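Reading a protein record of the kind used here takes only a little practice. Think of the row as the fold of the chain written in a discrete alphabet. A record is reproduced here so that you can trace the correspondence yourselves:
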Amino acid sequence: MAAARESGKSGDFKLTKKENTIIYAIFLITFISFIYAIFLPLKLGIVWLISGLLIYLLGIVFTIVAVLNFATSPKDKAITKGLYGVSRNPMYVGIVITQIGLGIACSSWLYLLLTAVLMILFNANSSAEERYCLYMYGDDYRKYMRRTPRWIGIPKS
């Protein structure tokens, strides 16, 4: 879990069997997507390639910035700065943008379908991560949830 950072809080936090299954499914879909992407031919010389690569690069930059925001935040506080100020899950958003870009660049409906499945799994996993953050950070995280949407452009939950 991206939210699993050392904060010094003692006690046990357990994932449910369903949450563990979702995490394994995310790894499986990501692995399948990676292997499939190796064999996907780029459609050179068409608008889809250029559009897809631009979206892919946007996703890479977005993901890198989110990782840097995560890595440079204090470990004993919920991350609320940078891209975490516009989405509670910016790393997931960046990964999905990257996957969409690759699917478009390769003109692969199957890859875009895998991306859609990954988006559904990310959404399901976000509930477990938010439950963990509420456990670790309490009311501070609850306030953050009220003012920041889970996904960019989607109203707060």
Notes: The radius of gyration is 17 Å. The chain has five helices and no strands. Residues 45-147 form one domain.
